[in-house]
């Protein structure tokens, strides 16, 4: 990425986090630019990161190597069609918009090399994870560029099939909300057990953080980690058995299946 020039179309929170991650990795401000219809948004991103900003998308992509589409899915068709007359064949298009397929983007953009990504909101604190899929037109160098781009805010994982992005959406794209829900529920249960709300909330949050760090840093899987902290006949076993008696695993499978199904539905609706 040392000589790569990047334009962000859309300068909202996710784009700003990627820009901040790239700057932290050593990319010069002169190599990054962004466009956004909002004057306040342009001013904020320019002030925070020292990059040049534009109101006009065509100006922003002039002379760049990578174009990051960071707009709302509902705006993608109009944005792509407006960009098409100004694109160069070598420019890599990276989309971080949920639910927009490569086929839809090709119909709007033409035969550009495209990498479709599904990041998640922890990217805002540089702890994200993204699934990436590349079309056949993407070169090895462009794959590296996309990898470095998304790795600036967390982990980037390549997928062999585009349809797997629906599963990525279900597991990690929507996943943070599942953990927030668990934290909510554990906090409420702690309060009912007699803890002050603030104490219960801090216990739940720090436990989630600690467990995640243990899982990421361990050389064994989550099932083994669970077994290691579940003493026979102890308090953890009592809780786990209660979860399982309520159909916990089946409920999680059903929930993620619903998310994946909705992701596929949205792709069909937004791609028209």
TrEMBL record:
InterPro entries: 6-PGluconate_DH-like_C_sf (IPR008927), NAD(P)-bd_dom_sf (IPR036291), P5C_Rdtase_cat_N (IPR028939), P5CR-like_CS (IPR053790), P5CR_dimer (IPR029036), Pyrroline-COOH_reductase (IPR000304)
Residues bound to NADPH: 57
UniProt-annotated binding residues for NADP(+): 9-14, 70-73
A Gene Ontology term for the protein's cellular component: cytoplasm
Residue stretches making up the Pyrroline-5-carboxylate reductase dimerisation domain: 162-266
Domain Pyrroline-5-carboxylate reductase catalytic N-terminal: 5-99
Pathway: Amino-acid biosynthesis; L-proline biosynthesis; L-proline from L-glutamate 5-semialdehyde: step 1/1
Location within or outside the cell: Cytoplasm
MF annotations from Gene Ontology: pyrroline-5-carboxylate reductase activity
Listed EC numbers: 1.5.1.2
Keywords of this entry: Amino-acid biosynthesis, Cytoplasm, NADP, Oxidoreductase, Proline biosynthesis
GO biological process: one example: L-proline biosynthetic process
A Pfam family reported for this protein in Swiss-Prot or TrEMBL: P5CR_dimer
Reaction equations catalysed: L-proline + NAD(+) = (S)-1-pyrroline-5-carboxylate + NADH + 2 H(+); L-proline + NADP(+) = (S)-1-pyrroline-5-carboxylate + NADPH + 2 H(+)
SUPFAM superfamilies xrefs: 6-phosphogluconate dehydrogenase C-terminal domain-like, NAD(P)-binding Rossmann-fold domains
Family: Belongs to the pyrroline-5-carboxylate reductase family.
Function recorded in the entry: Catalyzes the reduction of 1-pyrroline-5-carboxylate (PCA) to L-proline.
HAMAP family membership: P5C_reductase
NCBIfam families, A to Z: proC (TIGR00112)
Name this protein carries in UniProt: Pyrroline-5-carboxylate reductase
Native source species: Pseudomonas fildesensis
